[in-house]
Amino acid sequence: MSKVKKKVKVIKIDAEKCGGCRQCEIACSSVHAKPKFSSSNPARARIQVVRDMDYGIFLPVYAGGYMAAECNGRQKYVIKDQEFDECDFCTAACPSRDLFKEPDSGLPLKCDMCESVGEEGPMCVKWCLAGALTLEEREEEVEEGVKPDEMEIAMRSLINKFGRKNVAETFNRLTQKS
Ligand code: SF4
Ligand code: SF4
Question: For residues 37, 40, 43 and 45, what is the CA-based torsion angle, rounded to 10 degrees?
């Protein structure tokens, strides 16, 4: 696969400025509500803020996408004498936890940089009034090619959760009705 240069948007996180207000979670869930901006539910957000009120530790973590299997991460993080484990700052929607999954369907969530609102986004950056999130652009070499689209990722996650046979049977039943 050939590589091309592309401008990539990056969100820079300044954890020192984050006060844990969770406005970013609200903004994200709201822009992804259907219809857009009709509701907000932080459980549906593609950003989650790890919060430890006692130690004043706040760290926004972005949903990085679906992982079919648990990883073998065995890290420990120590911040201000407080220990965090390997899953606390992980960006993956994986089988071992409920984070970054739609609460109703269990389908994985992934930050899409608010592509549906174009230059108005990213909404988490816009609504972070503390200035902990800022948008930057950089040039990167990326592989040309077709990425698996949202539908394919969702189908793969359903197959992993319920099995190929159950998904196929349900799909057939639903499509016969319509
Ligand atoms: S909106 Fe900004 S300050 Fe508030 S929790 Fe999110 S990143 Fe932190
Ligand atoms: S960039 Fe958009 S999709 Fe990604 S976490 Fe922020 S609000 Fe959500």
Answer: 30
